[in-house]
Amino acid sequence: MHGGPGLGPVFERARYPDATQVHWWHQPLAKPCAARPYLDLLEATLTEFRRAAADAGQPLTVMASSFGAHLAVHLARHAPDLIKNILLLAPTFNPEQAALRLARRAFRVHTDHQHAGKLATALAMYEDDPGRPRFWDVFGALSLLPDVTELYFGPHGGAEAARSFAQLIQQPGAFDGPTSVATSDDFSAQDHTPVRSGFGGPVSVLFGAYDPMIDADQDRAVWETIFPQAAFFKVETGHFPLLELSLEECLAPA
Q1: Which residues make beta-bridge pairs with 233?
Q2: How many helices (H) and strands (E) does the chain have?
Q3: Considering only Cβ atoms within 10 Å of each terminal Cβ, which end of the chain, N or C, has fewer?
Q4: How would you class 172 by CB atoms within 10 Å of its CB: exposed for 0-12, middle for 13-18, buried for 19 or more?
Q5: What stretch of H or E contains 205?
Q6: pLDDT at position 91 over 90
Q7: What is the per-residue pLDDT across 198-228, written as a single tens digit (0 to 9) for each?
Q8: Which CATH number fits domain 10-96+152-251: 3.40.50.970, 3.40.50.10610, 3.40.50.1820, 3.40.30.10?
Q9: Which domain of life is it from (predicted)?
Q10: How many other C-beta atoms lie within 10 A of the C-beta of residue 193?
Q11: What is the per-residue pLDDT across 174-195, written as a single tens digit (0 to 9) for each?
């Protein structure tokens, strides 16, 4: 399950064209004027997973990247008997705080850029008055800086992945802005107090050593609350281990 929200699995499909054993599910877009798009996404995820497990005739490995980790938690809560094991790749527990960390990193990298001042102002205004309107102001200012997507990737082997990501993000279906905004806002309106999952099977969590969005020490404590049995690994990547490592390397801990 890919991240985002609003991202499609075009990046994974391009990198692993022969991985026929993997179901790269293209999550549905938010419906116009949907009252609860995040809750709709959770329902669609559960429906799709039950269908895939029924077709396979056995429990499945759940692999979730970034924001997709919340979908994995939902499956673990509602269909634990259909899950063989769970692999979380750079799981983002608090997407708003993760995006703000990315924005601060981008500002440090591009301090001298002509639009850096706008980002600094937006960040300062968010600090004074946190909330979704100020958050989207930060996001808008962040988009004015160059090569922001390169920051997602690590310095060792991430350059090729970054170039591919920058090219593919322009393709139809790669990213849907309205879905991202609607789903993110609905997600932020929910209570996300971490609660221990009823799933007792194996769980592996991979954090990228160069991830600009995640504080691994802070987030590890959260994921340990949800999955006390989880094994944690640090890999030499940025925010998308699946796009920098091989599929086998990602699955090895699981």
Answers
A1: 206
A2: 11, 4
A3: C
A4: exposed
A5: strand 203-208
A6: yes
A7: 999 999 999 999 999 999 999 999 999 999 9
A8: 3.40.50.1820
A9: Bacteria
A10: 7
A11: 999 999 999 999 999 999 999 9
Alpha-carbon distance values, 180 to 8, 114, 143, 205, 229 (Å) = 11, 27, 14, 24, 31
Tally of CB atoms within 10 A around 112: 6
SS3 call for 215: coil
Neighbours of 84 (CB within 10 A): 14
Q: Residues 142, 119: contact at Cβ < 8 Å?
A: yes
- Say how far apart CA 248 and CA 254 lie, in whole Å: 10
> For 219, left (φ over 0), alpha (ψ -120 to 50), or beta?
alpha
Amino acid at the residue 65: S
Terminal-residue alpha carbon distance, the chain: 16
CB distance 100 to 126 below 8 Å = yes
Per-residue pLDDT, averaged over 236-246, amounts to: 95
**DSSP secondary structure letter of residue 112:** T
